[in-house]
Design a protein that fits this description.
heterodimer, A: 326 residues, alpha/beta, Rossmann fold, seven-stranded mixed sheet, 12 helices, 14 strands, B: 345 residues, five-stranded parallel sheet, two-stranded antiparallel ribbon, 7 strands, globular, disordered C terminus
């Protein structure tokens, strides 16, 4: 067990899977000699050679399309896209091709690719900080994974690489270096499709993922001072979604807040809130609240970014409101 | 007189090609049979569409020599083929049974191509290494480059050959694929079946270059133009491209100019590739008019039986609609939601 940053956990997860399975190849812009824009692939080209770590020309659509081809030929490609915002350039390859290869061929062909991308707030402005998860979670045939800490990053990444189908692996880039966390030694795997309760609580549940898990844990500390015990559920994979863990938590606490960094309107939180309302209606002591970003682009200036994105304080206010309602 | 002189010249050219390519009478008869069979299947598909049995699909009429010629050097089961929706003749020539084509056109449960999941002519056959195709234009060119890159890195001798119309060469995917293939000298062949018109837009309104093949220069690969009504010319160009790919020299952009023919039943067209080959084979004594008539009759009888069987095949079972979204051992995509009446979605 060692303290590691998320970026280190990413690097180790990639390295271990490359060593374990020679079909695993990496491709992306500047990932070879340069080691990736955030250093996730540092040294891997030297260790595994250029046949395993491919520097791509500047084309996100091309990178995803080439990765699909390599997967069709039997490899296990892991593509890095420098910012999740650039995935919009690859939408047709992801949605019309990767997501449908297995289904349309009745299982004759499959597309086991992982597309990794840093995403979300932490500076970069309207086209370098977007929370893109809802676009992909909506598409049947894609899996969507979002870790919130170094251990999950490694375990989920390794599981994603071993998965037989396309996985969009979104990395909250503001957590890349802070906070570090314990990462178990050895071949550590976290299966896709399982949420986890990060903190037990009895008064309300926050259903969240990614960087907002860290904010939720901070909010729980503040609320504990008021005598409100907040349960924090880290969804971890949006598709497949672990309905069972979410429903069990809401059943226990009777109050639910859905919390993500993405724009609240039309975000993945709407799906979570609808599910909770449908399934836990009899358990609920109040409405399911949603906390998310304003319906605005995320500006580059830190002051303006903070004004748009939600945080621990926003969540504290929502939980206080919910617990005083009833 | 002029017409006869032209024909004599053409036959002399074909004789020369045939010797250069070392093709025997049997080889030419096999190509002719493949082209003729594709024509007869295509006519039956057109009838099915006209009768309202099936929507979608596009005719390969006039493309027979281009397609049969291009797959002549293909090593079936080793090389990958990434076709587009017109490639009926290519698929039949590499061994897809006509009944599969009919089942696909009719969206039957036993359609081996997609079981009714895709519109007709979005080809697929794992056994023949026909890579599952979408209905999008040019997306498969990137897959071909990715497959070729994987094959090269793993020192497999496989070639990827992908087909598309000239309209596809305006898509970004096409340029991204050629750039990557040229950069890494990949064993991939890009075949453009150029009929000069994308749906309704003529080539002159699509690009500023005179030939699709001109685009190859920007990606460091040869761009070759060949007459798609002459199967021998296509075989020659395809063999050259496969030789380049297999020996590590890299990709080729092969522009096959295909004729636009009138609808089935119209007057014989001098540009018709099937007719051209038939006239040549008869002039050389490789095929008698009687043998030709017998071949047509035999093919038609086989196709009519296959079509009859396909029409009797069952429609897809709605209970199977959820199959094959994810790998069988995969975590359930969306576990049971009680709001759906407890049904797994």
């Amino acid at each position: 067990m060692a303290q590691q940053t998320m970026i280190r956990a990413l690097h180790d997860g990639l390295r271990e899977e490359m060593a374990r399975d020679e079909r695993v190849v990496l491709l992306g812009e500047d990932i070879g000699a340069a080691g990736g824009i955030f250093n996730a692939t540092q040294g891997l080209r030297r260790e595994f050679g250029p046949a395993r770590v491919w520097d791509m020309p500047l084309t996100e659509n091309g990178t995803v399309g080439i990765a699909i081809g390599a997967a069709l030929a039997g490899l296990r490609p892991v593509a890095e896209v420098q910012f999740a915002d650039y995935l919009f350039a690859a939408m047709s390859q992801l949605v019309n091709e990767a997501a449908k290869v297995r289904y349309r061929s009745q299982g004759e062909w499959s597309c086991p690719i992982v597309v990794r991308a840093p995403y979300g707030g932490g500076g970069g402005g309207p086209d370098h900080t977007q929370n893109v998860e809802a676009f992909f979670a909506h598409v049947p045939g894609l899996k969507v994974v979002i870790p919130s800490n170094p251990a999950d990053t490694k375990g989920l990444l390794k599981a994603a690489i071993r998965d037989g189908d396309p996985v969009i692996f979104l990395e909250p880039k503001r957590l890349y270096h802070e906070p570090p966390g314990e990462v178990p030694d050895g071949d550590y795997l976290v299966p896709l499709g399982r949420a986890v309760v990060r903190r037990e609580g009895s008064d309300a549940s926050v259903i969240t993922y990614g960087a907002m898990v860290v904010e939720s844990l901070a909010a729980a500390e503040v609320l504990a001072g008021d005598g409100i015990e907040l349960e924090v559920v880290d969804v971890r994979t949006l598709q497949p979604l672990d309905f069972t863990t979410i429903a069990a938590s809401v059943h226990k606490t009777t109050r639910a807040v859905v919390f993500h960094e993405d724009v609240r309107f039309g975000g993945f939180g709407a799906e979570l809130a609808a599910f909770i309302s449908e399934v836990c209606f009899d358990d609920l002591a109040g409405p399911v609240l949603r906390v998310g970003a304003l319906s605005l682009p995320t500006p580059a200036s830190p002051e303006l970014e903070t004004a748009v994105l939600p945080n621990a304080e926003t969540l504290v206010a929502a939980v206080r409101h919910l617990t005083t309602l009833h | 007189m002029r017409r006869q002189d032209d024909e004599r010249m053409r036959f002399a050219r074909l004789d020369a090609r045939r010797i250069t390519l070392d093709l025997q009478a049997d080889d030419l008869l096999r190509a002719y049979r493949n082209m003729l069979r594709a024509r007869l299947v295509d006519e039956r598909l057109a009838e099915l569409r006209a009768q309202g049995y099936a929507a979608g699909g596009a005719s390969c009429r006039g493309h027979e020599a281009a397609q049969v010629g291009c797959v002549e050097p293909l090593n079936v089961g080793l090389d990958y083929i990434l076709p587009y929706y017109r490639d009926l003749a290519a698929l039949l020539a590499i061994g897809m049974p006509p009944e599969a084509i009919f089942l696909n056109q009719l969206s039957r449960a036993t359609d081996p191509i997609s079981g009714g999941r895709m519109r007709p002519a979005q080809w697929n056959s794992r056994a023949l290494r026909v890579v599952s195709a979408s209905g999008l234009v040019a997306t498969q060119t990137l897959h071909a480059a990715g497959i070729a890159f994987a094959a090269k890195l793993r020192h497999e001798n496989a070639v990827a050959v992908t087909f598309f119309g000239e309209g596809a060469t305006s898509e970004g995917d096409f340029h991204e694929a050629l750039n990557f293939a040229g950069l890494h000298h990949l064993p991939v062949i890009f075949v453009c079946e150029n009929n000069g018109i994308a749906l309704s837009t003529p080539q002159s309104a699509q690009m500023s270059v005179a030939h699709v093949a001109d685009r190859a220069a920007g990606y460091g690969m040869p761009g070759v133009i060949v007459d798609g009504s002459d199967v021998l010319a296509v075989i020659g160009a395809a063999r050259e491209a496969f030789m380049r790919a297999r020996s590590g020299l890299g990709p080729t952009l092969l522009e096959v100019i295909v004729p636009r023919l009138g609808p089935a039943g119209s007057m014989p067209d001098p540009h018709d590739p099937v007719e051209q080959l038939r006239v040549y084979l008869i002039s050389r004594g490789d095929l008698s008019p009687e043998a030709d008539a017998q071949m047509r009759a035999d093919l038609a009888a086989g196709l009519d039986a296959a079509l009859k069987a396909a029409l009797a095949a069952p429609l897809p079972d709605p209970a199977t609609v959820g199959e094959h979204l994810f790998a069988p051992d995969s975590a359930s995509p969306s576990p049971t939601n009680p709001a759906d009446g407890g049904k797994e979605r």
